[in-house]
Design brief:
Blueprint: H1 17-22, E1 32-34, E2 38-40, E3 48-55, E4 59-60, E5 63-64, E6 73-81, E7 84-91, H2 95-103, H3 119-123, E8 136-140, E9 143-147, E10 154-156, E11 163-166, E12 184-189, E13 192-201, E14 205-213, E15 219-228, E16 237-238, E17 242-247, E18 250-252, H4 255-258, E19 268-270, E20 276-282, E21 290-294, E22 298-308, E23 311-319, E24 343-350, E25 355-362, E26 366-370, E27 382-387, E28 399-404, E29 410-414, E30 419-420, E31 425-428, E32 438-446, E33 451-458, E34 468-471, E35 482-485
Antiparallel strand pairs: 1-7, 2-34, 3-6, 3-35, 4-5, 6-7, 8-9, 9-10, 10-11, 12-13, 13-14, 14-15, 16-17, 17-20, 18-19, 20-21, 22-23, 23-24, 24-25, 26-27, 27-28, 28-29, 30-32, 31-32, 32-33, 33-34
Bound molecules: fe (ii) ion (FE2).
Length: 494
């Protein structure tokens, strides 16, 4: 039997909201095991450890968080060697996590709107931050660090994922200070790799401090800059000579936060008539910052930046407004159609004339960009990024998109209707000679099994689908960011 629909019928969605929601169940268990349920074959020359971070608890003792970004940081690791893989997950034992698990009730407010029980009276004027360590995890100078942008990193044991305590980066971060959740690894600053990071103190005037650490973790450059107005700076981009920030046109009205009605991030409002300001800070710490206006947009993540023919080129995931959940809406009942999609835009900045122009590189809904680690801050060709299944509109990420920025060609592998994409990472193949010769690794969620998969694709043939799908025996709630390191941190092989 053939069914015909009137032309006004909207196209069927590529996803089922129940499937999507089921990826946001708390995962209270901590596991460690050899992964044995595998479709395909793990490449035998793939060696190293994938670390992922993200909110693992979507409730505290039955009290749901208002937004996933308020969930406690759960670290997962997958260690690869000789075609085998070992999985482990552990909560970061932050002071707040330990206290709330002992008390079996929420003791803290969340930045994204989670409140303590008891209404506004119980929350008013409590401005204590719970360092939830849930955003990113990096390995630098023999330290594995779980990051959350409003407080200090937590240091973890890379083999056991045990929490070793707060880490102030060799005294760099003062008491009460913070460190970005999005530091960049410059692959070769005058031949030596560097970790470039920042902290920001937002206010009526915002202070940005830039830090550069050498391979031993010692600070080699540190300088501060003031910018007028409130600055919400989640990410930045680097080139060999510049650090680049996008100051989104937002303002902060903290009264509902102070009075206990809203979280701090719910007090941010977008000003569509004001430009986004591109802040270009010379990394040498000597030359002055330049500020260049561009189209109003909201940016969480930058894909990459580079210097070319006297211009700065910056590729960023842009939203046409702040993608807030508005009011008291529950994130689990979100209407994706009402939120703006992220799109990949390219900005060309001419420093001599202090002008910028923007063009769209990818109009499909995308988030979580990744590229070859040696191309960070350099001209690059290939970008891998999470994408919606459909070419238009806003939707959960269910696909992986590869952009060839030289030709404009895009390749897509979709896991719709039951699969949901996380942040991809690109892992170069040993002795590779081409920029896309390597593996794309993603921790995905399978709405059919209600479990997560570690998926490995060939970077040169993503449309062929996974070369290996490692089926975990449980789910890992949707995560945020992670790193792949060439060191193997799994158990000793028999
Ligand atoms: Fe991020």
């Amino acid at each position: 039997m053939t069914t015909t629909y009137p032309t006004s019928t909207p196209p069927a969605k590529s996803y089922n909201l129940d499937d999507w929601r089921s990826g946001y169940r708390s995962q209270s268990q901590e596991y460690s095991y050899w992964i044995s349920d595998i479709d395909g074959t793990i490449p035998p020359d793939l060696e190293g450890t994938l670390f992922r971070n993200g909110p693992g608890l979507l409730d505290v003792a039955g009290h749901p968080v208002k937004h996933p970004f308020d969930g406690d940081g759960l670290i997962s690791s997958v260690a690869f060697q000789n075609g085998r893989a070992y999985f482990r997950n552990r909560y970061v034992r932050t002071a707040g996590y330990v206290a709330e698990q002992q008390a079996q009730k929420p003791l803290y407010r969340g930045v994204f709107g989670t409140q303590k029980p008891g209404g506004p009276l119980a929350n008013a004027f409590d401005l204590t931050l719970k360092n939830i360590a849930n955003t990113h995890i990096i390995y630098w100078a023999d330290r594995l660090l779980a990051l959350w942008e409003a407080a200090k990193p937590h240091r973890l044991d890379p083999a056991t994922l045990d929490t070793l305590g707060l880490d102030d980066l060799n005294g760099l971060i003062a008491s009460g200070g913070s460190f970005t959740a999005h530091p960049k690894i410059d692959p070769g600053h005058h031949g030596q790799p560097r970790l470039v990071g920042f902290s920001v103190k937002p206010g009526l005037s915002s202070k940005i401090t830039l830090y550069e650490l050498d391979a031993e973790g010692q600070v080699v450059i540190q300088h501060s800059h003031s910018v007028p107005g409130f600055a919400f700076l989640h990410d930045f981009a680097i080139t060999p000579n510049y650090a680049i920030f996008f100051q989104n046109p937002v303002s902060f009205g903290p009264l509902p936060y102070l009075l206990g009605f809203k979280g701090a991030a719910e007090c941010i409002s977008f000003n569509p008539k004001q430009p986004t300001k591109i802040l270009v800070i010379p990394r040498n710490g000597k030359d002055p910052m330049q500020v260049i206006d561009t189209n109003p947009c909201f940016v969480f993540h930058h894909a990459n930046a580079f210097e070319q023919d006297g211009q700065l080129v910056i590729d960023s995931v842009c939203y046409d407004r702040f993608p807030s959940l508005e009011g008291s809406q529950d994130y689990l009942t979100v209407d994706f159609d009402r939120l703006p999609p992220g799109q990949l835009w390219r900005f060309r900045v001419d420093l001599a004339t202090a002008t910028a122009r923007a063009e769209t590189l990818v109009s499909r809904c995308v988030e979580f960009p990744a590229l070859h680690p040696d191309q960070v801050g350099r001209p690059y060709r290939y970008l891998f990024i999470g994408a919606a299944h459909a070419a238009q509109g806003n939707a959960p990420l269910q696909a992986l998109l590869k952009l060839d920025s030289q030709t404009g060609q895009t390749d897509v592998w979709s896991a719709a209707p039951r699969g949901f994409m996380g942040e991809p990472l690109f892992v170069p193949r040993p002795q590779a000679t081409s920029e896309d010769d390597g593996w794309v690794m993603v921790l995905m969620y399978d709405g059919d099994r209600r479990c997560s998969d570690v998926v490995i694709l060939d970077g040169q043939a993503i449309t062929a689908g996974p070369i290996a799908r490692l089926k975990l025996s449980h789910h890992v709630p949707y995560g945020l960011h992670g790193s792949f390191v060439p060191q193997y941190f799994g158990p000793t092989l028999d």
